[in-house]
Amino acid sequence: MLSEETVEKRNAPPGVNSRSLSIAHSAADLEVLREIENVYFLPPSEFDAGRFVLEHAPATSCDDIERMFTKLKRQQQVVSGKALHLISQQRDNCDREFKEIQTIRDQLSTTLETCQKAREQLRAASNHLTISTFVILANFRKRQIIRSVLKSLELLRSLRSVEKDVAELLTKKEYYEAIQLILKSKKAASSHKEYTCIADLATRLQDTLDMTEEKLDSVLSNICYKFDENVFRKLRKAYALLGKTQAAMEQLHMHYSSAVNESSIEAVKNYVGNAVDMKFQDMCQSVQPNKAPICLLNLCENLFLIMKSYFLLVDWHSKYDDEETVPISNNVFEIEKNVSREYIRQKLKAGLVRIWHDVQAKVSTFLRSSGLEEYPFEKFIQMLGILRKLTQVAEVFCGDKSDLLQDFIKTQSVLYIKNYHRGRMEELKLFLENEGWEQCPVKSTFTLLNLQEFKQFKKYLNLRSDTSFVKAQSDSASSVHSQDDSVYISKYFKQSTNHTPFEIFRNENITNDDIFGLEPEAVSDDSDDEPEELKRDFVDESDQPESTKGSPSKTKDSVIVANTTLSVLRHCGQYLQICRYLPQISLEVVMLMNQLFDYYFFSVHFFFTSDMDVASTTLYSSKLNSVLKRIKNYIDTSNSGEMDGKIPCPESPNHLNLTSEETLHGLSERIVAVESVIFLAKQYELLQPYLESIVASHQKMILEHFKDNTLAVIQDLRVPVYMCSASKAVEVGPALIAMSKVKWDVKDVAVEHSAYVDMIIRKIQVFALRLENVSSKVTLNSEVLSVIWGMVSKFIVHLLVEGFSNATKCSNGGRGLMQLDYRQLFLKLEKISGLKPVPFQEYVDKYVKAYYLPRKGLEEFLQERTEYSNKHLMALITCACENKKDRQALAAIIEAKDASI
């Protein structure tokens, strides 16, 4: 049996609390809701829940009934909680609707009251007014109707003239007034739709509005080519009236993109024969190389006008926003206005970069398609000037560093300079093959700074080798130029005329300094001016005055250069111009300059050592051998034309006479060639501080390596080249035959030298006389003479040792005769050459004195002296050692040393 408390709880209404509301959202409540049968949700008129429960109640036991009751109660609680939760969610909406209903009820009460009062007043009027009064009211009503008709007719008349009035306003550029008139007319027409003619006029007004917007869009597109502040202000006001300010700005940016494309096509098509239906890239490819620079100039000028217009647009908006921006408030209209203004500001700011990228793309397309490698050097430099000016414009325009264009310029410039370098190498090969190797008449103070190509570098190529000084000068000048460029370019952006910063390139007398906006050089003294003859491509000996022909300068420090030397220096000057304007490719250009030097140096060595007839082992230093080996790796000395990637070596000139004894086997040509290479190396050393200032810090090691391992060893070239003439001063065969006739096994010490000494001295005297003749063609300073006579001495000492080693028998008296001969010979040589002391004589002295060494001393001599050949050493031990066993032991030492090598 159920307790009374249980029955009370069962009959009590279901409890709803805050927990039940939260439970409605739990998974358990959702599960309970899903278990409720659908019939319980039918309307009460269609479903009786109590009867349905009684019909389906279990009849088995009270516990089943109790469980059913508990389930139904639980379902009722969940449903009640869910309903209460939904009601609480919609409470605000419900309150709002009730409030609206109450407002409507109040309004209806007021309306009812007004109608009741009106009826009472009408009833009173009907009872008290006379017929005449109604007649007056009827006439007044007619009057009002007629006025309304007249007003409608006046409206019709004005609407019919709207199109004409709008056209006149547009002609006067009164865009705001035109739009205002149309909108006012449309509003008036919409108020009188009851007239059929008015409805037709409303359609025509919409067409007029559309045509007016098209006119505005056309005027807006013209802004892209020439910004007019007054016109744009009117357009902005008109679009604001239409509520299309942002849409107009979007459209304007599209017009700017179209303007860039159209201006590019317009600039290029004048240089293409048939440009109909051609794409821009195809048009660029059709431009002739000789017309490409002027075409590029026109392209940049047209694009600058577009950029200038946009720049002025942004500038105008900046000023306008500062004036028109309203303070922040809670007014929705003002907030929207400020948001729109901020959107336009951001759009304009982004448009600067986007338009510049469009301009970059057009210029890059033109450059990529126009074949830069075919430009003459002067045109290429001019092109670099145009592009440099364009990058300056971009920096002022949007602050962009033009990385895309700079990278493209770098890539194309590297390709151009390599192609240009190939032409210069072919030209240098031709010069070398036809070079006469005659000394050019230049001042003793001549340096590369006297050449026209280097005049603009004078303030950078200070004679002091102070890299930091040069770098500071270069950086300072660069900074000044950068600031001046910004001010200079900004003036063109703010001018009201169509002048552009590119107009300077239309001047035929423009210089490179003008092109790159550099300050003019200080006026130099006449002594620093380049000689008139050096301004030519080559120096003609016939241009010299009669008094100087055949008699070069006798100054002690006279400069020896050839025509080809000046040509190489001029090429270097042109290369440095590219380095100056494109510092990012400086290393590549400097390496090509070094290749010019390598080729010139290697060719001189190749020409003037080809007739060497003595052993070259002692003539080449290890560094000189390394340099020659390095250069030979990329020079094809076979001239077979099959060496891919190698530079063909120049062919030996047929006009060079290196066999005449009268000219000492072309000694004057050899001197001019070698000394011109040495002079060229000195000029390269003069350039080193500047070159180190224009390359990156991590690239300086390459320049230092070239300086220390190539330029520093150039003077070593004198030894093998001058030896080719010095080795022919004395005929080897007759001298050795004469020495072989001398009896070296005499018992007594002779008091007179041998006959061969006089023969050699006579040959040396003849050499000296011919050397004097050579000095009439080329300057022989003390340094050159010292090397020449040093090579004569070197050759003679080797000749003496060779002759002494041919002796099969030699006594102490013979050894004394050897000493007498070579000392007498060197005494004469000292007087003839003027060298004190004569170099290399210890080579003979030590060899002769070795005959007197004891057994142990001779063994040490054989082990330590590596400058003598095995033949010389074997002859020494044959004559010096009478003991056979000692001779065999010493011979074994020579053989062992030879085997170890």
From TrEMBL:
Q: Name one Pfam family in it.
A: Syndetin_C
Keywords on this record? Coiled coil, Protein transport, Transport
- Might you report a single GO cellular component term? cytosol
Q: Which InterPro entries match?
A: Syndetin_C, VPS50, VPS54_N
Q: Where is the composition biased (Acidic residues)?
A: 522-532
Q: Which GO terms describe its biological process?
A: endocytic recycling; protein transport; retrograde transport, endosome to Golgi
> Which molecular function term from Gene Ontology is one that the record holds?
SNARE binding
Specify where the region named Disordered lies, as residue ranges: 520-556
Occurrences of domain Syndetin C-terminal (ranges): 664-895
Which domain of life does this protein belong to? Eukaryota
Domain Vacuolar protein sorting-associated protein 54 N-terminal stretches: 34-316
Keyword Transferase found: no
What the entry lists under PANTHER family is as follows: SYNDETIN
What name has this protein been given in UniProt? Syndetin
Q: Which organism is it from?
A: Arctia plantaginis (Wood tiger moth)
Q: What is the lineage of its organism?
A: Eukaryota, Metazoa, Ecdysozoa, Arthropoda, Hexapoda
